Amino acid sequence: MYSASDLRKGLRVEIEGVPYIIADFNFVKPGKGASIYNCKMKNLITGATLTRSYRSNDKLDEPKLEERTMRYSYKDGDNYVFIDKNFEQMSVGTDVLGDARFFLVEDIEVDILIHNDQPIGVELPTFIEKEIKETEPGYRGNTATNVTKPAKIEGGYELQVPLFINQGDIIKIDTRTGGYSDRVSVSKGS
Amino acid sequence: MALPGDKFRLSALKPALELRSKLLTAIRLFFLEHGYLEVETPVVVKTPAMELHIDACPAGKGYLRTSPELHMKRLLCAGYGRIFQIGPCFRSGERGNLHNPEFTMLEWYRAQADYMDILAETKDLLRYVAKTCLGKMTFERNARTIDLGAEWLSFSVSEYFEKFAGWNPAASFDERRFDDDLVNCIEPHLPKDRPVVLRDYPAEAAALARLKTDNRRLAERWELYLGGMEIANAFSELTDAAEQRKRFEECAQKRLAMGKEAYELDGEFLAALETGMPSCAGIALGLDRLVMLFAGADSLDDVLLFR
Fold it and tell me: Quick check: A56 and B179 CB within 8 A?
């Protein structure tokens, strides 16, 4: 149980069974008046935001959240199976993973956020490396990074890459934005 | 261990610190020139001044003071006619852009004066210190210029509530609604280009203030707003010991009902009040907020060294 005075940016709370993180917090107190705690909260499952204000006497539930470091093992239909160091398995659906499912590589270490024994979020390393499976041929001489073209990686995920990138190149992707970050190595074929 | 950025942050705050030092000197000069005596009263107290929404931090067998009010009033009872104090006060759980649990208060009292006399003096003080520290009467908050030299506006609480919240809290007081509307309906409408005073609060919202002689529903209290931010609170002080004891006791009951600690009554203060306190007025002004305004900052983070 949290009381209103525990509220701060980054704190995770539970409202009617749903876990939220406080994205923005603002304390106001009119002269001689009661403390008012204004919170902007983000639903940890849907990402929707909510604005609420609390008084000193208000109480909030503490969500039963757990973060587990696990490795990606294999894909099973629409589910992705992760395994921890004790060989315990956890299956995570496409709905929870979102675009992150395209960035999984075997044995990659991720942090899975678990609420009441259900996975609700997966945090990948900031950068992952993927091979370009499909793109228009590159222009060797063009090293400009501000002109881009579409490219696809394994699984069909499409992103914009600079013109000099070729099929078979290995690139670095920023998992926070899902965008191109850097070229790691050039395809042996080019 | 200090964070890597700590050294950088502390040295970056030097201009704010220099401004603060200048301001403190100017305030002291002003009061000394106006016949005031600077006093220091205990920071650790046996029992804090009882207020509904102010919580004290325990310290040893007592508490850290939430305000120097009760000790300064004992000095008034002992015949000190003009006193001021600059020092730390502590309020548990108050932390935000405009709040810090430890902060510096400028507080002064004057015998044979009422809240309107204190307003005139506050005007003189702020204009004087701005001129001394900034070389001008204007400063900025949230990209808006505030001019201390302009005519100060004064509105009664009833007038503003009727206009912007649609009810009169002095007619029938609803505490929760009062606080909500003050923050959401009244404060956003206050003019921000010059000082604004809200005056004559409902009696319930001023536990240590004298009631108006022509309207017992109202207390002689005002709050000063600069750029929409509250900066000072002033009262014509309540001098009636029996009435003060009654208000403290009612406040203690309300605190208990809210699940808060009810502090012991300050017997020494009440005893002093019984021997007689001259008619007087007093004011508390948030010094850190004033530094913030003069520095053109929007948050205490930009002027407080350690927090």
Answer: no
Which residues in chain A have their CB less than 8 angstroms from residue B52's CB? Answer: 32, 34
Query: Among residues 133-172 of chain B, which lie with CB inside 8 Å of chain A?
Result: none
Instruction: Give the position of tokens 């920023």.
Output: A174
Q: Which of helix, strand or coil describes residue A46?
A: coil
The pair of three-digit structure tokens given for residue A135, joined into one six-digit string:
């793109």
Give ipTM to 2 decimals.
0.80
Interface A:B, Cβ pairs < 8 A: 55
Is the CB of residue A2 less than 8 Å from the CB of residue A55? no
What does B80-142 look like in DSSP terms, one character per residue?
A: --EEEEEEEEE-TT--BTTB-SEEEEEEEEEET--HHHHHHHHHHHHHHHHHHHHSSSEEEET
Distance from CA of A65 to the nearest CA of B (A): 26
Measured CA to CA, the distance from residue B108 to residue B226 in angstroms comes to: 19
Query: Does any CB of chain A come closer than 8 Å to the CB of residue B97?
Result: yes
For chain A, strand residue ranges (E) read 2-3, 12-15, 18-28, 36-43, 49-55, 59-60, 65-76, 79-83, 89-93, 109-115, 118-123, 127-135, 148-153, 158-162, 170-174, 179-185
Single-letter residue type at B220: E
List, for residues A86-108, the tens digit of each pLDDT value. 999 999 999 899 889 999 988 99
Mean pLDDT of B252-279: 96
pLDDT in tens, A103-146: 998 899 999 999 998 999 999 999 999 999 999 887 666 666 67
Q: Average of pLDDT values for A67-88?
A: 94
Asked if B206 reaches chain A (Cβ–Cβ under 8 Å), the answer is yes
Round to whole Å and give the CA distance between B220 and B236.
6
Distance CA A159, CA A134 (A): 11
pTM higher than 0.90 for the full model?
Answer: no
Q: Are B186 and B164 in contact (CB under 8 A)?
A: yes
CA A28 to chain centre: 32
The answer to whether the CB atoms of B53 and A27 lie below 8 A apart is: no
φ and ψ at A21, to 5 degrees? -115, 140
Alpha-carbon distance of A45 to B220, in angstroms, equals 52
Of B232, B242, B241, B231, the C-alpha closest to B292 is B231
Distance CA B84, CA B104 (A): 13
- Inter-chain touch B233–A35, beta carbons under 8 Å: no
